[in-house]
Structures are given as C-alpha cells and as structure tokens.
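Minimal example, chain plus fe (ii) ion.
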Amino acid sequence: MTNQEPANQEPANHDPANHDPSSHELATPHLPAPLRDFVAGFDVLLESGADEAAIVAEGGALLRDLLRTDGWLSADAARPDPQYYRQYLLYLDPEARFSIVSFVWGPGQSTPIHDHTVWGLVGLLRGAEVSQAWRRLDDGSLVPDGPPVRLETGSVTAVSPSLGDIHQVFNAYEDRVSIGIHVYGADIGAVDRSVYTREGGRKPFRSGYANAA
Ligand SMILES: [Fe+2]
C-alpha cells in the first residue's frame, strides 16, 4: 500500500469495475482530502472481505500514509482539554463497520486501564504516546504484559481481543500535546467496554465522543 493518491485529488479508489457504489454510500464530501482518501481506501479494504490480519497490515499501511502529512486535522478536533484526554469523532462509516477518531492528549494526561473489544489501529499524528499492555489472570488481577511501548509520530500499532486488548496509555510528554489518529472496527464511542484496576476491579465503560461529528 505505497501508492496512495495525492492529497489534492478526488478519491479514486472506488473503481467501478470491482466495487458496487450502490451497495452503500460514503458520507465523505465534508472531509479534508487526505482523510477522504483514507476512508475510500479503508472502505475498499473492508469490501474485499479483509480479515483482522489483513486489516492490521493493509489498513495499518493506509493509516501510516495518512500520518505522513499534518495540517488536515481541524483545530476543533485537535483541541486538548485542561484536565482529561479527548476523543473526537472524525468519521463514522454509515454501516458502523469502522470509526475514525482523533485522540488528543494534554501534557501528562493518561487513560485508565481499558479494553476495546474490537480491532483498533492506533497511529500518532503529533508527539508520542506510551502504552503499557496488561494481561488478566484467572482471579481478575492484572500483570504487565511486556514493557511499556513508545509510539512516535508517524508510527502505527494495533489492539484487539486476539492481539492483546487491555492497556493503559500516556502522553509521552509532560509539556506538550500529543495527538493520535485511531481507527476501530465499530462505532467505538458506543461500544460497551471495561475499565480495570490492577487489583482486579472491572467497571463498564462507554467512551462516547467529545464532539457530535
Ligand atoms: Fe486504547
């Protein structure tokens, strides 16, 4: 997936020869061109019947392409909150097969330990973040699953119930904003998920969105 369309072109990934445009409509005219192209490419990937491994590999390559340019993310979707990290909805597939969010970290902010329950691609547009994966023992308590992993601008990683789904994430910086672009295999703001304590506590969690895109 090295052949992305230039950002200033109309989305050209919908080849009528192998994609039936009447099957569903993409609600993308309002999107900035790089994001619109990404959505078009992701739609083609999902229409092809890609399994999770292909979504992680090929969808991850599409996301890395999207992260190569900055400047397309609106100021509204890049705004940190003084107290908490923010998740802004950038795009929701009309069939809720995937959603795209910007994840905005204020300096020093972190998430609780949480899961996703669906596949997720996590890419960094600005700054850096650190993720600590956790593994759940039979008694419910959590133990670290490997060392903390630092994700730099331009790089992409994945989470899912099969790859490892429980983690806690931090802005790598105490003095600046970091921004991730995440793609999830559902309307992630509406998914029933959990937050955890290391000692075995587990509470229902539904993230919602900080905006109503
Ligand atoms: Fe996460």
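Residues 1-22 have pLDDT under 50 and may be disordered. Residues 119 and 160 are 4 Å apart (CA to CA).
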